[in-house]
Amino acid sequence: MSDAPARSLPDRGCFAAVDVYYPADGGARAAAVVASDPRFTVIDDERIAALTDVAPYEPGRFYLRELPAIHAVVDSLDGLDLIVVDGYVDLDPQGRSGLGAHVHEEFGVPVIGVAKTAFHTATHARPVLRGQATRPLYVTAAGLGLDQAADLVCTMTGPHRMPDALRRVDALSRRLRTT
User: Fold this and answer.
1) Separation CA 4–CA 95 (nearest Å)
2) 113 neighbors 87 (Cβ within 8 angstroms)
3) Backbone angles phi, psi at 97, to 5 degrees
4) d(CA 104, CA 126)
5) Which of 7, 54, 77, 169 lies 20 to 30 Å (CA to CA) from residue 30?
6) Domain 14-174 CATH assignment equals 3.30.2170.10
7) Sign of the C-alpha dihedral computed for residues 28, 88, 149 and 118 taken in this order
8) What residues does 13 pair with on adjacent strands?
9) Smallest Cα–Cα separation from 31: which of 51, 13, 46?
């Protein structure tokens, strides 16, 4: 859990959802979708970056692989107000840092973590059901309240379990587009 005070998100601004994929042949592909509202009603920009050199996987230090890729797709964004990550912000109620906590510390903006599966120590994560889903998403946050983060994930654009922005950024990260 972040020590930074929770704040409200603006209705308009710069909001990014990010994902990183590691192809079997090496390297990483990072993607971001950018919107001017926190529900990602309209995607204003899509960014993709290929990294040939990535840190090796180290248990408990996954963020070392992810942060350079996330930098590659969000560093040039002006006035970033929020980053949504696929995963957990913190891994337990005591605040053991997950990817989202490192992203929050690195970029200094609120971060919402949206995980597809329950993590056994993340008993504080807020389960969120969207659409007709019977399996919840697990929401954690840094820099804004957990209730606000869960409410936002509930209302993000899209009829499916996963919000459209996260579905799109996952698809983009899995294929490198050069146009």
Assistant:
1) 12
2) yes
3) -65, 130
4) 18
5) 7
6) yes
7) positive
8) none
9) 46
In this structure, the number of other CB atoms found within 10 A of the CB of residue 80 comes to 17
Q: Which residue has the tokens 């710069």?
A: 14
Cβ burial 137-176 (10 Å sphere, 16+ → b, else e): bbbbbbbbebebbbebbbebebeebbbbbbbbbbebbeee
Mean per-residue pLDDT for 95-99? Answer: 91
Model-wide pTM > 0.85: yes
Say which amino acid occupies 113: G
128-138 tens-digit pLDDT: 999 899 999 99
pLDDT digits (tens, 9 = 90+) for 98-107: 999 999 999 9
> Which amino acid is residue 163, in one-letter code?
P
Q: What is the mean pLDDT of residues 167-177?
A: 86
- What is the spatial distance between Cα 177 and Cα 29, in angstroms, rounded to a whole number? 10
Nearest to 103 by CA among 61, 71, 147, 145: 71
Q: What span, in angstroms and rounded, lies between the C-alpha atoms of 15 and 12?
A: 9
